[in-house]
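sry for the spam today, last one i promise. struct tokens for design, 266 residues
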């Protein structure tokens, strides 16, 4: 079972008391033991369910609702205040409130969730078998930057001379969550690719961006914030070579102080 299949099953999970012993959830729950991202997603879902239940439990019906219902059943008339609503209207209003409340909590995008989703989507894009899909294949960096500008995709041009001298595999202009973004792929001397993904920082919804180089499986990744843009550098090249390339980037020296940054994993 993979993480996507586990998510589909666990989306129906209500609580430990109700579903903890249900064998239909057992395999999906065990999947979390080796998948930190899946566990975080599951914990967030449980927190969301608890919040919705608490909000619903806090809703109190009108004090005279029981009397009005009984009066309707008996065919009696109940004196209403000037601003009282018919019970049917109250029921409709309650449904609208509950529906709106649930929709708000279910669709509200958290900053941290946005960043995690972007990171996962970007890595999935560059991890494609045979390399990422590119709109333009060219070894010329100037051509890639011209292409991105023409397609109104964000382009980071303040590159150090070391990168400007490297050949590229090409580039891609795409849209993530209604925000234009770009991918530029550099060819490193060892034959590996160094991927640069650029997007407007506002797309992350004020999420905290981690510092330092991080390891994700066989990928090494680092994020920078430059001129309102979020830069994601990613490569499968060995860590030492990845650090050498990134140290050449402007402003990275300060971000890479302390060897402890190099041992952190997502």
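last one done:
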């Amino acid at each position: 079972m993979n993480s996507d299949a586990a998510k589909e099953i666990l989306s129906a999970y209500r609580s430990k008391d109700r579903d903890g012993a249900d064998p239909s959830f057992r395999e999906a729950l065990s999947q979390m033991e080796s998948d930190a991202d899946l566990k975080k997603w599951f914990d967030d879902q449980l927190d969301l369910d608890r919040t919705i239940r608490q909000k619903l439990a806090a809703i109190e019906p009108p004090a005279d609702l029981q009397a009005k219902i009984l009066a309707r059943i008996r065919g009696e008339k109940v004196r209403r205040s000037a601003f009282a609503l018919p019970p049917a209207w109250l029921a409709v209003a309650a449904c609208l409130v509950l529906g709106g409340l649930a929709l708000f909590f279910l669709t509200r995008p958290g900053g941290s969730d946005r960043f995690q989703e972007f990171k996962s989507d970007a890595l999935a894009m560059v991890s494609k078998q045979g390399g990422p899909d590119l709109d333009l294949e060219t070894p010329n960096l100037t051509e890639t930057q011209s292409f991105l500008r023409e397609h109104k995709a964000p382009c980071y041009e303040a590159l150090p001379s070391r990168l400007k001298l490297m050949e590229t595999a090409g580039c891609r202009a795409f849209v993530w969550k209604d925000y234009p973004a770009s991918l530029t792929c550099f060819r490193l001397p060892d034959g590996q690719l160094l991927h640069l993904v650029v997007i407007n920082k506002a797309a992350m919804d004020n999420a905290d961006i981690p510092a330092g180089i991080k390891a994700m499986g066989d990928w090494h990744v680092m994020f920078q914030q430059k001129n309102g843009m979020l830069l994601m550098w990613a490569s499968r090249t060995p860590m030492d070579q990845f650090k050498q390339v990134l140290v050449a980037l402007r402003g990275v020296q300060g971000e890479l102080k302390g060897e402890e940054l190099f041992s952190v994993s997502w």
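Residues 149 and 155 are 7 Å apart (CA to CA). ok im logging off now
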